[in-house]
User: Which sequence fits this backbone?
């Protein structure tokens, strides 16, 4: 027998006499299908806006919108569906923000530093030196990504950190798969180049330690 | 970047696993012959390795998670602040529903409810930050940890060499009994392997974007759940079976 969850959804819900409303079922489904991608949504917003505070607003906003639009979600990749919304919200937020220019930039830089400090206190473990190296590597990788121009940054984050397929990336970013391929290829070429210029070629820096 | 510029897209496609069989074979043959492209390919792998460091991918702050949780609202009238009810409530409702579903619909002994529960257990393990009770990559720590907590002894092979490092274990509750949940990683993904003594089917199904692969061996039923694709999860199953044989 082929396993089809939808066939069994009806009797299960009928069985509980508490009769959960359509809203309750929707909330339940949303939690199961969309909520698990919260970290990914935040990660994407974080790299698109490059601003920790703004990212939180963007993701909160995106989830509210996603929840409202969830009735229209017709299957497929929930992750790609959510990410397209996150991307739109990021663009609106950064556009609104650039209007409020200078003051915001200073605050952003400040909160970024604070965030890094908070981060640096969170992981505790055996070998502090190893951790420091790992943290430096991670910080270096983050700054490499953040320095990429937006279309390349977006493509590389969706592919390498969120592991979306070319098809899903095309869906999120609204471009053809061929464009996704060329952006990824260009993004990686830039990353190699910059990493080498900074004197730490990615794979060699790892093995020499 | 050095290497043949016309092969660059193919190298990227290869590293992303997006090429069809013919193109894969063609570029692999070219790699075997072309030193520059091998170097270019190694650089691409270097980039990938650098970006897969833990700490590169940002994680949502707890207060954001809590805010969104509140915004979604209390769908099933469950108290989400405490872990216990959210663990128990679906179990009770599920058991009731299952008996009804069995009566009404299910032509075979084991309905899909177990897979649903396994997927729910997988999602729960990621949501409440309670993935592992014993957190280690050492199989000799995980296996004894289960002793005395459950009445059977699940195999806990080390599969890091096959690309599935062990992350730890915990107890979970499926089908009305305590089961072992052994946690493996696949790159950034989590695989929950639920194990308990029972006969079981041998199949792979998809449920709400999760892949569920089941098999049974030595009187134990195994259900692996993850968001990785069916081919990856079947590779996990094959590696697991091969190393416990």
Assistant:
């Amino acid at each position: 027998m082929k396993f089809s969850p939808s066939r069994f959804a009806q009797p299960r819900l009928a069985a509980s006499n508490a009769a959960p409303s359509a809203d309750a079922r929707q909330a339940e489904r949303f939690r199961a299908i969309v909520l698990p991608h919260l970290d990914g949504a935040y990660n994407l917003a974080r790299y698109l806006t490059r601003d920790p505070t703004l990212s939180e607003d963007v993701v909160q906003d995106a989830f509210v919108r996603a929840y409202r639009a969830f009735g229209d979600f017709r299957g497929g990749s929930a992750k790609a569906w959510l990410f397209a919304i996150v991307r739109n919200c990021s663009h609106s937020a950064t556009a609104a923000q650039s209007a409020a220019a200078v003051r915001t930039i200073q605050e952003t830089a400040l909160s970024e530093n604070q965030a890094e400090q908070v981060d640096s206190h969170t992981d505790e473990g055996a070998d502090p030196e190893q951790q420091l190296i790992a943290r430096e590597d991670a910080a270096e990788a983050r700054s490499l990504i953040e320095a990429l121009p937006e279309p390349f940054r977006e493509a590389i984050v969706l592919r390498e950190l969120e592991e979306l397929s070319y098809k899903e990336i095309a869906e999120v970013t609204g471009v053809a798969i061929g464009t996704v391929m060329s952006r990824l290829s260009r993004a990686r070429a830039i990353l190699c180049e910059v990493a080498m210029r900074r004197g730490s070629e990615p794979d060699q820096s790892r093995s020499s330690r | 970047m050095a290497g043949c510029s016309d092969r660059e897209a193919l190298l990227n496609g290869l590293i992303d696993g997006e090429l069809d069989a013919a193109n894969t074979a063609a570029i692999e043959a070219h790699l075997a012959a072309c030193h520059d492209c091998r170097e270019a390919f190694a650089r691409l792998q270097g980039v990938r390795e650098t970006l897969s460091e833990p700490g590169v991918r940002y994680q949502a702050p707890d207060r954001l998670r809590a805010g969104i949780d509140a915004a979604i609202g209390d769908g099933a009238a469950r108290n989400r602040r405490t872990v216990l009810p959210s663990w128990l409530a679906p179990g009770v409702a599920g058991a009731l529903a299952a008996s009804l579903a069995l009566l009404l619909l299910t032509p075979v002994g084991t309905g899909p409810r177990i897979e649903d529960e396994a997927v729910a257990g997988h999602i729960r393990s990621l949501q409440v930050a309670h993935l592992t009770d014993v957190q280690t990559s050492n199989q000799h720590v995980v296996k004894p940890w289960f002793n005395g907590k459950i009445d059977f002894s699940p195999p806990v092979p080390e599969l890091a060499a096959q690309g599935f490092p062990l992350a730890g274990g915990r107890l979970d509750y499926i089908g009305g009994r305590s089961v072992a949940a052994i946690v493996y990683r696949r790159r950034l993904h989590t695989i929950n392997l639920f194990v308990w003594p029972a006969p079981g089917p041998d199949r792979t199904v998809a449920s709400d974007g999760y892949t569920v692969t089941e098999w049974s061996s030595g009187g134990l039923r195994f259900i692996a759940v993850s968001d990785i694709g069916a081919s990856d999860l079947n590779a996990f199953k094959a590696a697991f079976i091969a190393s416990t044989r």
